Amino acid sequence: xxxxxxxxxxxxxxxxSAQTADxxxxxxxxxxxxxxxxxxxxxEAELFRGQMLFEMARMSVDDGLxxxxxxxxxxxHNRWLFEAYGRDRGGDIPQRTEYxxxxxxLLDRFGNDTRLAIILFTLDETTYSRELAPLAxxxxxxxxxxxxxxx
Length: 151
Fold this sequence. Notes:
Blueprint: H1 2-5, E1 10-13, H2 25-37, H3 42-63, E2 66-69, E3 73-74, H4 79-85, E4 93-94, H5 100-110, E5 117-120, H6 128-139, E6 147-150
Parallel strand pairs: 1-2, 2-5, 5-6
Antiparallel strand pairs: 3-4
Helix pairs in contact: 2-3
C-alpha cells in the first residue's frame, strides 16, 4: 500500500522467465529458508522467483496495481556497451520464453478475478500469436473481465 499511497499505478517484474508457482505455506517457508541461507540451487532460485511473482499477483488483486511482466530478456549482452554506459542501455537480446504453462498457476488462482490487470511485454515475437494473444483473449472474454494487454 506504500507504493499506491505514493502515486504508483503499476508494478514491474523483469524476471528471467514467466514461471509462476502456487506453493503451500509450509513449502513456501522451506523454500524461503533455503534462499535466505544462501544454500539453494538454480532450480530453487527460479521456483522462488515464480512464487514471488504469484505473491505479487495476489497483492495486485488487493491493491489494484497493474502488473507489468517482461520476462525472457538476456540483459546487458554487449560487454563493451555495458562497461561504457552501464546496465540497461540497450544490450538486451530476446530469449525464447514460454508463457502458457509458466503463467498457469497464477492465472488458475487470479486469472478470472476482475481486479487483476496484467501487461505482458516480450522481446520474443514468436510467442505473440501462439501464446500471448490466445491468453489475452481467454482472460478478456465475457466470463472474465481482467484487463490483459500484450505489448
